[in-house]
Design goal:
418 residues; alpha/beta; Protein-Tyrosine Phosphatase, Chain A; six-stranded parallel β-sheet; six-stranded mixed β-sheet; 40% helix
């Protein structure tokens, strides 16, 4: 608790040090900057854009925070994610600021706003030429509780939207926003840039198969070789609009698109099972999108393993109860909960049986004992689900396809006997 308090107090003080040096290098480099932001789907949208712009742009992969973006601009790479790295990074920052600029003329930055001040800090650093903002949901809500309690905002949703809104405010030329999200639309007035609205009416048909996903628009059909929820059409439309703005001819096949780890990757499991790994993160909106996608799949033996929705603060009970109500409307052969919050808030109002475990190792043991063979298993949520998946893989080399494989995460999973 003491460490978390110190970290919270020092977060922006230390971040500002790296931002200062990042500004120097960014000024020397002077690329066209494109920001991809929002509560969900940022990384997948950036990878969608990467499949089109390819090597003509630099991408802030695995970096989206008030620390991550400056590190990426400075070319500083974290290794262990431990405290012992910080002295060296502090020393490297001034030297990195004056290195030769990157060769790419476009910088695509995935930028977050998971705490008050982060959107403001990063948007002021980046001053993007163009911004894509498609989602605004309750992620890291606990960081914004104090703003609501202090009366600055009426509710948590407005507080989160206001922080993301800084990206629109600092965008210089072109914003692409989800017109079906009321919270985002309220923030559009903050920008002087041209705004292109992406609407659900753009999508005419959606079909899903194990070989990929087909999105039919008014004047084009896009087939992507990946399992993607219906809502992903916003990302496709936004990327195509941005390419038009950049005068880049699109490749409608998106054949170079690769999903980042933990975002609906399909993996072979033991006993001839198939694993859909969507374990990277979870809030109610992202879980809903993935569950509805899974419901559309034609497989008969569909199992769902869900982890807690973390960092929800005072909204924790409400968000888990919403999840239970959603599950009551779906038909899956098995529901497996991992974490105390699902047990405490979701299970009491669930109208169907669910196995519930606080410890991920217990959930792993249950799966090993009860899988008969041929099931399709969806993993979504927190509580080290990637550690459960690792032990169910048919091909152990596929561990490289899972998220959170850094040493710090492996050490944390060992404490849970994973």
């Amino acid at each position: 608790m003491i460490f978390r308090f110190i970290k919270k107090r020092l977060y922006f003080l230390v971040a500002n040090y790296f931002v200062f040096w990042a500004k120097i290098r960014l000024k020397k480099w002077h690329p066209r900057i494109i920001v991809v932001t929002g509560s969900n789907g940022k990384t997948s949208t950036m990878h969608l854009l990467k499949s089109q712009l390819k090597s003509t742009a630099k991408y802030s992969e695995r970096a989206n925070s008030a620390f991550g973006i400056p590190f990426d601009i400075l070319g500083i790479r974290r290794q262990s994610f431990g405290l012992d790295e910080w002295p060296l990074m502090i020393l490297l920052a001034p030297f990195s600021a004056f290195k030769s600029p990157f060769a790419e003329k476009i910088y695509v930055a995935e930028a977050d706003a998971e705490r008050p001040g982060e959107g403001q800090e990063l948007s002021a650093l980046l001053k993007p030429e163009a911004t894509i903002w498609l989602t605004c949901d309750r992620t890291h809500s606990q960081n914004f509780d104090s703003l609501v309690a202090g009366g600055k905002f009426q509710n948590i949703d407005e507080a989160i939207a206001d922080e993301f809104g800084y990206y629109l405010e600092h965008t210089e030329k072109f914003c692409l926003v989800n017109s079906n999200n009321g919270l985002i639309k309220q923030q559009v007035k903050r920008t002087a840039a041209k705004v292109s609205e992406i609407s659900q009416t753009n999508l005419k048909n959606y079909s899903l198969g194990i070989d990929g996903t087909r999105f039919s628009f008014t004047n084009k059909v896009v087939f992507v070789r990946a399992l993607l929820p219906r809502e992903f059409h916003y990302s496709i439309s936004a990327v195509l609009e941005l390419l038009k703005y950049l005068n880049v001819t699109p490749d409608y096949s998106f054949e170079n698109f690769e999903l980042p780890p933990g975002r609906s990757s399909i993996l072979d499991g033991i006993k001839k099972t198939r694993i859909i790994d969507s374990s990277y993160n979870a809030n109610f909106a992202s879980v809903k999108a993935i569950l509805l996608m899974f419901a559309e799949m034609k497989d008969k033996e569909k199992w769902v393993v869900l982890g807690d929705l973390t960092d929800q603060g005072k909204e924790e009970k409400e968000e888990h109860q919403k999840l239970a109500e959603l599950l009551n409307e779906q038909e899956f052969e098995q529901l497996i909960f991992v974490g105390p919050r699902l047990s405490r808030y979701a299970k009491p109002i669930l109208k169907k049986p669910a196995q519930s475990f606080e410890n991920p190792k217990e959930a792993l043991d249950y799966l090993r004992q009860n899988l008969k063979g041929g099931e399709v298993i969806l993993f979504k949520g927190a509580r080290f689900l990637e550690g459960i998946i690792e032990h169910l893989l048919l091909n152990k080399a596929d561990v490289r396809l899972l998220c959170r494989q850094e040493v710090v995460w492996r050490n944390r999973r060992k404490k849970w006997q994973l």
